[in-house]
Write a structure and sequence with these properties.
Elements (H helix, E strand, L loop, with lengths): L2 E2 L9 H29 L2 H6 L5 H8 L6 E3 L22 E8 L2 E8 L12 H14 L4 E5 L11 H19 L4 E5 L2 E3 L4 H4 L3 E5 L4 E3 L3 H8 L5 H5 L1 H8 L4 E3 L2 H13 L12 H6 L14 H4 L10 H6 L6 E4 L8 E8 L2 E8 L5 H17 L3 E7 L6 H5 L2 H14 L4 E10 L2 H4 L9 E4 L4 E3 L3 H18 L6 H19 L1 H6 L12 H17 L13
Parallel strand pairs: 4-5, 5-6, 6-8, 7-9, 8-10, 13-14, 14-15, 15-16, 15-17
Antiparallel strand pairs: 1-11, 2-3, 3-4, 11-12, 12-13
Length: 548
């Protein structure tokens, strides 16, 4: 039977206060990075106003339903990949992306950040686009793209970017073929490959005097063929809406174009969410959804700064689930692996977390629980906090590899949606068994203090020290203690730098870093997204909607 969890956590303790301060500092760093991108884009406001245009974030705000939820995605994409200076790196990948509501329809919205380098795709920008396209496909979301981009920066040309960039257009065809509407608002230029963005869209809205779409602009055309033509003749809005047929709607300015986009979406009647599925409405009328007994604010003081410090992840669960009620699964077996049934925002879910390494019993327990959740049809939420699978002679002889593999097989082949939150450590194969990025969870978010690595930096450094000292001994060479310490420090520094949540998020190894206090809200939003996806019946075709 279910029972209300009785917390033993003291949010007013000195330890909690210290942890809160440390995590708040990380949150401040995260927000500063996100604001850096917005500020960099906003510096172009005078130029945009002179052209009678809106900034990218203004466009997104006007497109979205006022006051409706908005879930930004991959905000740190490209962090430290454009430049290595943490004070100068501008994250975001050259685009704004997230899930929000347009005319009452939950959509994937992507906007070129044309306030920065004219919207040229930045480092990791392609990976970000591919990721949000995949999310749209998995969750049956209409795809709305606000386009104004200079395309690839030829001064930073990489052949692999060109080759793999083809997947972006492939995904647009997959979206359309799957029955998912692809709507493009062409706010500015789309050149070469960028021209296929509207070309592979179901509906295209263009802006008079601003929209451009051509395979070769005037300079390239002249260089290639000697032909001289204006931008308007080659690919202007009037030409495409009256001659080529690439555009369906012609707007006079950005505002009207966004209004047209909202009108197009409003006609997608089959995509409207039934009021019965609107969790916010259900909560407002007292549908039985009960808030947790404990404050979300306490999550800041719960998580330790170092993975060696213990934390009871039941405490985290109790601050995420409805009424703090948990139905614990096999609580006395493999106790370091936590499995529980609960509700979040009225949605039945299974939760898996860790109070340490995953041992043989824990792996078997988790595999059983995953299969049970698949039987029930309940989504699974992983709250990662593990240093990996248990090592040692006893563990190996008990079949850790075999049983750990069973858990990985269960995660891989689960038939229900899976969502991962990286709360603390995510080390070694524990990352795999707890549905890390490589196992394609529907959504994956990190807390600011999360750490992701093959192992801890100190463990890696100690391993390499032992290996190096053994090699020197075999060769009859003396051990240089100073050199060994230098190597140790270098390895620790290398691992720690790469394990940082802000760095891994910059590499698109998650879908964004979130404030722990927002976790319940984010999970509720994602669960409702999954629920709506299951209710939709698509009309797949042999191919995407063809241009006429």
């Amino acid at each position: 039977m279910t029972a209300v969890f009785t917390s033993r956590f003291n949010p007013g303790s000195a330890e909690s206060t210290q942890r809160r301060a440390a995590l708040q500092a990380r949150l401040d760093a995260l927000r500063a990075l996100e604001e850096r991108a917005a500020a960099a884009s906003a510096r172009s406001l005078p130029q945009f106003e002179k052209r009678g245009q809106l900034l990218p974030r203004q466009r997104v705000a006007l497109l979205l339903d006022a006051g409706a939820p908005w879930l930004p995605l991959c905000t740190l994409a490209g962090y430290l990949q454009d430049v290595k200076d943490p004070e100068k790196s501008v994250p975001g990948g050259g685009m704004v992306a997230g899930i929000g509501f347009v005319s009452g329809v939950r959509c994937m919205v992507v906007a070129s950040d044309s306030g920065i380098e004219a919207g040229a795709i930045q480092e990791k920008g392609l990976d970000k686009m591919l990721r949000v396209q995949e999310i749209a496909l998995q969750n049956k979301l209409p795809f709305i793209h606000l386009v104004e981009s200079a395309g690839a920066n030829l001064m930073r040309y990489r052949v692999e970017g060109f080759v793999m960039g083809g997947a972006l257009f492939r995904n647009l065809a997959r979206l359309s073929a799957a029955g998912l509407p692809v709507i493009t608002v062409q706010h500015g230029s789309g050149t070469a490959g960028g021209a296929y963005m509207p070309g592979l869209s179901d509906v295209v809205i263009m802006v008079r005097g601003r929209s451009r779409a051509f395979l070769a602009g005037p300079p390239l055309l002249k260089a290639a063929t000697g032909e001289i033509a204006t931008e308007e003749e080659l690919g202007g809005a009037e030409m495409h809406t009256s001659v080529s047929g690439l555009g369906e709607y012609l707007a006079e300015d950005d505002r009207q174009a966004l209004g047209m986009a909202r009108a197009v979406v409003s006609q997608l009647s089959q995509w409207k969410r039934p009021e019965a599925l609107d969790i916010s409405k259900r909560e407002a009328i007292g549908s039985g959804i009960v808030e947790p007994l404990y404050q979300a604010d306490e999550l800041l003081g719960l998580m330790p700064a170092h993975h060696r410090e213990p934390v009871d992840m039941h405490e985290v669960m109790a601050r995420l689930v409805d009424g703090s009620e948990l139905l614990l699964f096999k609580s006395g077996y493999g106790a370091a692996t936590l499995c529980a049934q609960a509700h979040i925002g009225g949605h039945a879910v299974g939760l898996i977390s860790n109070n340490g390494p995953i041992d043989v019993a824990g792996a078997n327990k988790a595999a059983h629980f995953i299969q049970w959740m698949c039987q029930l049809g309940h989504p699974i939420i992983y709250l990662q906090n593990t240093t990996g699978y248990m090592v040692g002679k006893d563990s190996e002889q008990a079949g850790m590899i075999k049983h750990g593999s069973k858990m990985i097989q269960a995660v891989t082949n689960a038939t229900v949606p899976q969502i991962t939150i990286q709360c603390g450590a995510s080390f070694g194969a524990g990352n795999y068994g707890m549905c890390g990025r490589g196992y394609a969870p529907r959504f994956l978010f990190s807390w600011p203090g999360a750490r992701t690595a093959v192992m801890g930096g100190e463990q890696a450094a100690s391993t390499m020290r032992q290996v190096t000292e053994a090699a020197m001994a075999r060769k009859g060479l003396p051990v240089d203690a100073e050199l060994m310490q230098k190597q140790y420090d270098q390895i620790v520094a290398m691992f720690e730098a790469q394990a940082d949540a802000l760095v891994t998020s910059g590499l698109l190894l998650d879908d964004g870093v979130i404030d722990p206090r927002d976790t319940r809200e984010v999970l509720s939003f994602c669960l409702q997204t999954l629920h709506e996806a299951q209710q939709r019946t698509l009309r797949p075709m042999q191919f995407g909607v063809a241009r006429m």
